[in-house]
Amino acid sequence: MISAAEKLKQLRLASVPPISIRKMAEEVGIGFPRYSYFEDPKRYKKRELPIDVTRKIAAVLSQRGVDPAEVMLLAGLNETEAEPEARAVEAARPAVQFVALQVALPSEPALREMFAKLLVLVPDGASKDETAQILAQWLPSGFAGIGPYLPDPGAGALPSSAVPPQSVATDDRESPRP
Fold first, then answer.
1. Which residue in 108, 106, 111, 134 sits closest to 122, CA to CA?
2. 133-171 tens-digit pLDDT
3. Has this prediction a pTM greater than 0.70?
């Protein structure tokens, strides 16, 4: 039979993307030495994890595709007991996930031209809220109309992970869609 410590490590490594032991400790909100103790079968000999720690671990791993009910089994719960705990973890998950992205924006003159074209879509006398709604609706088309970002050769090299787009997108609509 696999120990709770070994199963915990397997679940952590099965997450998508896998999370490091240090990051896991940080996200669970406990120190690295304490968390690593729970994953070390030579040091952690108990058959179950503490329920409070297991709930926190389930919350972190559920955001990475691991079934919280499977994690809750590590606390010594049976499947019937684990299911309500898992539902509570799922219910507490944030509705929004934040991701950091690197974005390359067009030049100021290109943005100015794009916004001038978008502002034509705003009727005279529109409120700020109506204007914001129209601009938000048409912003993707505005960016598509500018085309791909092609760096200025004199401005420096692209980041090693950046690859310039292969095709030019166009969107020269003069009036909004019906």
1. 134
2. 888 888 877 777 776 655 555 554 444 444 444 434 444
3. no
d(CA 26, CA 24): 5
Exposure string over 75-97, b if 16+ CB within 10 A, otherwise e: bbbeeeebeebbeebeeeeeeee
pLDDT for res 71: 96
**Which among 136, 149, 148 has a CA at the least distance from the CA of 176?**
136
**Would you state the structure tokens that stand for residue 15, as one six-digit string?**
């997450």
Amino acid at 50: P
Q: What angle do CA 57, 83, 1 make, to 5 degrees?
A: 65
- For the stretch 26-37, pLDDT in tens is 999 999 999 999
Q: Which residues contact 87 (CB under 8 A, 6 or more apart)?
A: none
